[in-house]
Design a protein that fits this description.
The protein is of the alpha+beta class and 104 residues long. It folds into two domains: 44 residues; 43 residues, no CATH class. It is 14% helix and 35% strand. The protein has one helix and seven strands. Strand 5 and strand 6 form a beta hairpin. The protein is rod-shaped, with a radius of gyration of 30 Å.
């Protein structure tokens, strides 16, 4: 937050004076307590760091050269799709079987 100057008021609280003014040339002064400012600094540091993520969930689209390549219907979510690339057929999972849905 390089555009803010850090000073203390008479009570020891941080005063952050921005380079902005109120239109009459008077600087605009915002007052925050140190705890709030420290939390903001910590948040900005986290935003500037690399964030590790992990994707979770279910794969809803599958493909193979024939229907025999499709996963067991009970192992994937209901509504998942399997594309038989050779036959150009898309199947939908009912939870117990792959039902033909679209012929391409």
């Amino acid at each position: 937050m390089g555009y803010l100057n850090r000073d203390k008021d008479s009570n020891g609280k941080d005063i952050h004076t921005s380079a902005r003014n109120d239109g009459n040339g008077n600087p605009i002064t915002d007052v925050f307590d140190k705890q709030a400012h420290d939390k903001l600094d910590a948040l900005l540091a986290k935003l500037n760091d690399k964030i590790d993520t992990q994707l979770t969930g279910s794969l809803m689209e599958h493909a193979g050269n024939s229907l025999s390549d499709a996963p067991d219907p009970s192992s994937v979510p209901v509504g998942a799709e399997f594309t038989d690339v050779d036959a150009e057929i898309i199947y939908k999972n009912t939870g117990t079987e792959w039902k033909q849905w679209v012929v391409l």
